[in-house]
Amino acid sequence: MRRRAVLDVAMLDDHSFSIRAPIWWGNLLMIFIEGAAFALMVVAYYYIRRNFNTWPPERTYLPDMGVSTANLVLMLISLAPMWYASKLAFAHEPPEQVGRWLMLVVAFGLTAIVLRAFELRGLHTRYDSNAYGSITWMILITHLAHLIAGSLETLLIALVMFKGPVERKHYTDTTVMAAYWYFVVGSWVILWLVVFVSVRFI
Amino acid sequence: MAYSQAMPMREDRPEPPPLITGDVENDIRAKLSATWKEKSGLWGWLTSTNHKSIAKRYMVTALIFFALGGLEAGMMRMQLSRPENRFVGPDLYNQIFTMHGSTMMFLFAVPVMEAVGLYLVPLMIGTRNVAFPRLNALGYWMYLGGGLLLYAAFFLNTGPDAGWFAYVPLAGPQFSPGKRMDVWAQMITFTEIAALIGAVEIVTTVFKQRAPGMSLNRIPLFVWAEVIMSFMIIFALPAIVVASTMMATDRLIDTHFFNPAEGGDALLWQHLFWFFGHPEVYIIFIPALGMVSSVVEAFTQRRIFGYPAMVLSMISTAFLGFGLWVHHMFATPLPQLGQSFFTAASAAISIPSGVQIFCWIGTIWSGRPRFSTSFMFVIGFFFLFIIGGLSGVMIASVPYDLQVHDTFFIVAHFHYVLLGGAVFPLWAGFYLWFPKLTGRMLSERLGKWNFWLFFIGMNVTFFPMHILGLMGMPRRVYTYLPEMGWGGLNALASFGAVFIVASGVVFVVNVFRSLSVGAPAGDNPWNAPTLEWATTSPPPSYNHLFIPVVEGRDPLWDAAPGELSVVTGLRTDRHEGLVTSIMDAIPEHRYEFKKETILPLLLAVFGGGSIVIAVFSPWGVTIGAIFTFIILACWFWPTISPDHDTLLVKEPR
């Protein structure tokens, strides 16, 4: 077979951002998968609701608003350093700068993980008390797993930024990490509304 | 912008002449072969991240599980061949039918459909590997782990025994003590991870790595089918993730998701399971449709009729596939309006299926059909799938479904749909692509035996089951009394199974015979139009010598005879590919594929090991998380090699 060279791509860059980057799509699909799992847990939460006369069930206190709202606000604030780190990465700023802002996100993430323990106590139910306890714990623990994974991944990228070797594609990884963190925080807004707010009205 | 610099030109990139000379081709070939050379020996096998190596072992493993599932089916047919048979007892029978269903669905059908895609998609869209090669390897190892777990447990008399859809309360802690259903739930964990990985690979690879010029409306139908299947996996499998996790915790740490005494709900399981389980049928079926299109195009030598209608039909099948899970639950107390909705949705899905059948008929009608084995399997598919589709429309109606629910009529229906609708196209695909995979042709004479034995056996086995079901024979009974009058038809069905087994033996003989004495295939033995036929058979580790440039929907038919437009300028000294835009496949940037490593296997061993621990203790999850993080950190941590020099922003400290 004869081959005709019609296109030379030698001058193209070796990385890119957002919808141009394969890893961005891999991350988005991961978000779809995990988002679908959260959505089904929310469905299960309201499905189980139908089996109880009162919600939360009798002899169960309403979940505490205080600590959960504090944690929500904390997570929302963590979006700012993550957004800024991602902005620096887009602009190919020096790795140490990006790493410092990422470490700030890790600090927020670790605090959120600690606060999650208090949130669980503030549910005033246990996973083995009844189906209400099971589904609320499931939602909080699954999201906790996301907080832990997100914080550790961010830490890892920050360490790469400090220690090196840093390649240009690691800037893409930083922006994709930011997208994942937005998902972790954004999904919590909805889950918080379900577990801590809607319970007071249904 | 201090750290960003334009890439300097490299000496090893040839200046592109209009027609590439043989010397240049040989030079590039030598360089690519050296760069993409797979390590030999056991270590090379364990560390490989080449999509073809992984997909091949995926296929072989899936076919072994198909044979095991078939053996289980044979044992069931043996047991049911006459009334009050004593071949296997009730407890073993329960395990066998559960193993059969779980094996066929989780260890054969979904993996094999993904495997064919993981092999062919990169070749068909003209790229060098899947987007995330290491992740791909992990997917295979996890899948293998799930299969080994299930069968190890089975041979230790701990095989799951509550049916492949594991209904609670039967599968719950109260009625299934012991570890059998925990094994089932964790087998699901393994296989769902594998399936999701495969889906993410396929979507990302197709979206971002198509050859320049392969815009959305030029993607081969098989590739479309694989993308649609992958999206279905991405949205359907989370349901079984959630459900099997709930079941595992109900059994292990006393949660109450499915315990009515504490406000749980058995029907919640059915909703979650079938929200996965029904799309699962289309996850298996849609890639099969893509294979049919490839076969029809190759053996009629005609462009597929109604390409846009075909693509839209597959997409609408996928959407509708998510809206009819409740038709598995018509025998539960559901609101009548809900039942009517799901009846309508179930009947509606026959419309896109019908559109596709007519498009194929149109293609065959106006083409020059060649009745090769591959094409015969497609004809068999039409016949069997239409029968299965018709009985499907019958049971979409609630009153009828209530009559035949849990009878052999259902067994007959879904075997026509799954064997006829998925396995026959799969075999058509094997006969079409085997020459590409191995470089050798399969025997047509043995192929015809393979087809006719399978086709006759399939009908003799499963058609009588329709009648048995109408006579009231329930599924999942290990025996029956002679007075029921079911003996004759059961004996006939069991007799038919002998043909299917014989057909399987003929296929295996054909494959091994061909591997040693089969006629050499050449690059494109069928004069097929898609890009996988533009490279050698079997393809080299880097797939295409140059990334092709696509000028039409059927690239090899649209190009000037014997000529291919190609891309130059990719680096040959590292695993480099081309990333193109999602809609029009315009080149965007170059991309380095990760190289081979042992880490995916390590992650599967340690992560998988902790999933097995999770059968016995919730601490498995914690242990698994720690292992996973450590291994992923090594996986992610950048390594420095001489060919990275121009990309470095910062030296290692």
The end-to-end span of chain B amounts to 22 Å
Strand and helix order of chain B? HHHHHHHHHHHHHHHHHEEEHHE
State the oligomer: heterodimer
As a percent range, the share of strand residues of chain B is under 5%
Helix tally of chain B?
A: 19
Distance between the termini of chain A: 70 Å
Number of strands of chain B: 4
In round numbers, the mean pLDDT of chain B is: 93
Biggest beta sheet attributes of chain B: 2 strands, antiparallel
Largest interface: A-B, 69 and 94 residues
| Structural shape of chain B | globular
pLDDT average of chain A, as an integer?
95
Element string of chain A (H = helix, E = strand):
EHHHHEH
| Secondary-structure content class of chain B | mainly alpha
What is the CA-atom radius of gyration of chain B, in angstroms?
26 Å
Inertia-based shape of chain A: elongated
The amount of helix of chain B comes to 55-70%
Largest sheet of chain A: none
Stretches of chain A where pLDDT is under 50 for at least 5 consecutive residues are none
Low-confidence stretches of chain B: 1-9
Would you kindly provide a written description of the structure presented here, covering whatever features stand out?
The complex is a heterodimer of chains A (about 200) and B (about 650). Chain A is mainly alpha-helical. The mean pLDDT of chain A is about 95. Chain B is mainly alpha-helical. Helix content of chain B is about 65%, strand content about 5%. A two-stranded antiparallel ribbon of chain B has the order 2-3. In chain B, a hairpin with a 6-residue loop joins strand 2 and strand 3. Chain B is globular and about 80 Å long. The interface between A and B is large, with 69 and 94 residues. Strand 1 of chain A pairs parallel with strand 1 of chain B.
